[in-house]
Design goal:
By secondary structure, the protein is mainly alpha-helical. The protein contains five helices and five strands, in the order H-H-E-E-E-H-E-H-E-H. The strands form two sheets. Strands 1-2-3 form a three-stranded antiparallel sheet.
Length: about 190
């Protein structure tokens, strides 16, 4: 009788192993389908990004270049992607630099120029979402602050722009930039 029980236990263990194998085979098949779907989505996303880069990116960099030149009074004139795929900027004499080697203020102006250019050039990027800036002009000198205020005013013609600041000079600059600036004191 003990031998019959041992055989029964062995038969149950074999059935359990077959069931486990079937479940793992099903999970593997499902995972392979998920993997194939993800690979297809990755390829489609890469194509969409490539199409955007080919169509919108040059316009974004042209616009960012114009904005950076405006913000820096012509000291920095060009924003582009270098041959190595990294962002680079050129000054008014044509010297090219990696943004890492710019001053904090100039780097912030570059990134502000890029953000504004993207919002202006990329179709339907957050059209209904306001642009919120928190003391974004704080590291800019007077001339560059004026140029950046003009750039924000230009953006405000087509987008809602909210600027938080504790500096009266920034409020004055934004008003002088020609926008219908509404000041709310908190």
């Amino acid at each position: 009788m003990g031998q019959i029980l041992a055989q029964a236990r062995h038969a149950r263990a074999f059935d359990d192993a077959k069931l486990e194998h079937a479940m793992l085979t099903t999970r593997l098949a499902d995972s392979l389908q998920d993997y194939a779907r993800l690979l297809l989505e990755k390829r489609l996303l890469a194509r969409a990004i490539s199409a955007w880069e080919g169509q919108s990116q040059p316009a974004v960099y042209r616009r960012a270049s114009a904005l950076l030149a405006q913000m820096t009074a012509g000291a920095w004139t060009s924003v582009r992607i270098g041959g190595d795929g990294h962002l680079e900027v050129a000054d008014d004499r044509g010297a090219v630099r990696d943004p890492l080697y710019l001053s904090t203020g100039t780097r912030q102006q570059l990134y502000l120029a890029l953000r504004i250019a993207l919002l202006q050039e990329a179709a339907n990027v957050g059209r209904s979402v306001p642009v919120v800036c928190d003391d974004i002009l704080v590291n800019f000198d007077d001339d560059r602050r004026t140029g950046a205020a003009r750039a924000l005013a230009d953006l405000a013609r087509t987008r809602q722009v909210i600027v938080f600041t504790c500096h009266r000079e920034v409020v004055r600059l934004l008003r002088d930039a020609g926008t219908g600036t509404n000041v709310v004191k908190l």
